[in-house]
Amino acid sequence: MHDPTHDYAVNLEWNHGRIGQLSSPELENLIECATPPEFPHGVPGIWSPEHLFTAAVSSCLMTTFLSVADHSNLKIEKFTCKATGTLAKQDGKWMMTEVHLFPELTLSPGEKEERGLKVLEKAEKACLISHSIKSEIKMTPTILQLELH
């Protein structure tokens, strides 16, 4: 018995210059995307493929973490994650060489910091987007404890 496959439809329409618009028949929101300003004719202030790539890794960590936390019965108050994607030349070709994740987890009162860290590390190892790319994934977590007053 094989696991089912899942397809995610994305449409892209070029607008003008180096700007296009991403859409999906499955989603309501449109996302404008463009060449980043570091490259010729790049456009500042618009999501680039590099931003979207970094966001895919970061959002996968969050969704995987929420699933693992739910299964582990870990009570949390807040989850945020800053992320940096590094574009560099490797073997003469541009590629996203690294994504550094900075998740910040606020645990509910009574939850143990070690347990929160363990669930976060388990989620990072299980992230399917991270498994799908060549980039090195680094994680620097911060675990906070919500205190009862």
Describe the protein's architecture and organization.
With 149 residues, this protein is of the alpha/beta class. It has 2 domains: 1-47; 49-145, GMP Synthetase, Chain A, domain 3 (2-Layer Sandwich). Helices cover 28% and strands 36% of the residues. It contains 3 helices and 7 strands, in the order βββαββααββ. The protein has helices spanning 49-71, 113-126, 128-131; strands spanning 11-16, 19-23, 31-34, 76-90, 93-107, 136-139, 142-145. The strands form 2 sheets. Strands 4, 5, 6 and 7 form a 4-stranded mixed sheet that branches. A 3-stranded antiparallel sheet has the order 1-2-3, with no helix packed on it. Helix 1 (49-71) crosses helix 2 (113-126).
Map the helices and strands.
Elements (H helix, E strand, L loop, with lengths): L10 E6 L2 E5 L7 E4 L14 H23 L4 E15 L2 E15 L5 H14 L1 H4 L4 E4 L2 E4 L4
Parallel strand pairs: 5-6, 5-7
Antiparallel strand pairs: 1-2, 2-3, 4-5
